[in-house]
Amino acid sequence: MRQFLKYLLENVESEELIFKKGSRLLTEKHGKPMYYVFGICEGIIAVNKDSSVIDFLGPNQFLGLCVDDDSELVGEILSKKATVRRFKLQDVLEKVEVNKHALLLLNRYTRKTCDSLMEKIISMKLDTPNRLLFSLRKLAAQFGSDFKDESVKLLPEAFTKKILSTYTGIKPSTLTDALRTLDEDRKIMVSRRVILVYM
What we know:
Elements: H1 2-11, E1 15-20, E2 24-26, E3 28-29, E4 34-42, E5 45-49, E6 52-57, E7 62-63, E8 73-77, E9 81-88, H2 89-97, H3 100-123, H4 128-143, E10 145-147, E11 149-154, H5 161-168, H6 172-184, E12 188-190, E13 195-198
Antiparallel strand pairs: 1-9, 2-8, 3-4, 4-7, 4-9, 5-6, 5-8, 10-11, 11-13, 12-13
């Protein structure tokens, strides 16, 4: 959604922020009725709701654009650093409301976000190895880099076993076994801190 981020940068006041790994992005200002939207320029961010990782975001995606009244969404920086632009949600909505093209871009982004969450819900019904493989392929398609050829993607180191366990809902010990099974079936290659995914 590079177009939408570009539109917001050109039309809405924002602040550039740089965060290190482990930092948290809060979409709500505590004690005040203020909501923020973070446009991601660089880095990988986990979207946490309660104690679960519900999704991952990268460049040209947004945290806080799709809000949830039930519980606060918190972003956690997974990459070594992340560069984001922080907007006030109200400013974003006011600019989108008066521009038909921006409204279409917001609608497209919201649809993609819903599709991603639906994919995750569907994957949670799969057995453990297939749930893990589905998740790894999804993450590799979005964040992976080519390894020798396009049919193999190298997953960034940010996706540790702990993060994958929290995202997939698979216990760490079971996740290790599932990774070994997928490796033996030649669907992935796993070494100490590297995961290669056959697409």
